[in-house]
Predict the structure of Alpha-1,3-glucosyltransferase.
Amino acid sequence: MHTYSGAGDAPKYGYYKAQRHWMEITLNTPVTEWYQNTTSNNLSYWGLDYPPLTAYQSYAHSLVLHYFHPDSVALYASRGHKSSLGKLLMRWTVLSSDMFIFFPVAIYFLTVYYASRGSSHKEDLVWQLARFY
């Protein structure tokens, strides 16, 4: 329920708003326009500048936000949008990304890395995993 970087700093309102805007763009425009300057996607207002895999991740999150709080990803109307529910849902997108993408990949990488080194020291793996958390 706390504030975020750029809160109240119009017109872009910080990185939190960039993430939310990317969800708005991926939900409401065709894939071919995600990286193009169009009437629906003004690249000077937080243009999508991450690789396509991340854009699809934004799209997946936008479906969740649209289901629970459509105002937070409404094209144009959601610029500067702020609400407690919107902030909560945005924070859940970060936690879910960590739980379902980042941590499994990190665990897999470390498991494969230590297995390839022939390390039988499970405490090495546990120590490295603890650094991620």
Remarks:
- Residues 15-97 form one domain.
- The CA atoms of residues 36 and 43 lie 7 Å apart.
